Amino acid sequence: MRVLTLGLCAWALLSLWSAPAQALATYVYEGNFFDTVGDSDFISGSYDTSMRVTVELTLPAPLGPNLEFEIVTDQILSGTLSDGRQTFTDIVAAFSTDAAGDITAWAVTIPLLLPQTRDAGTLRDVEQAIIPTQDYGFIRSSIIPGGDGASITDAPGTWTLVPEPATALLLGTGLALLGASGVRRARQAKRSGVRRA
Asked: Would you say 58 and 24 are in contact if contact means Cβ atoms under 8 Å apart?
């Protein structure tokens, strides 16, 4: 048992030593369900109220504290933006954070393409009076002005920072070591109890 415990400790130290100095940060956004839906006869498919905007972005490090609508587009290692009908991987993103580094304002969308036929995004501006909070999806018609659209306004979703794999590895190793230690103690207690009888 002692060899197993020492082996697990060595494996944990080696894992920490070989891990990158700065861990990746994956942010996940889950919007609320759309409450406004528009449908065009010229575009197949429809939005509905079971759809919402979701975003997943991986950055080289967590967002820093006290950001003022900082554009992080060049830092995105991978990402997706979905409005329930379309999923994009080419994303433009900007964030504001508080003193703890928690996201307080954001704009995540796709780059403006001309002629733009598809659009999706989530927006919560610092100045709520200027731009309302809105999650939206839109597919423009190439035949007539307008298209299919869906949105929810003034009901922002939530951002979550997903724990990086290194943290999970450390937690798992710690739990394995605690379990091994507990088994060892239980065996020693059992042996001690047998000798006394």
From this structure: yes
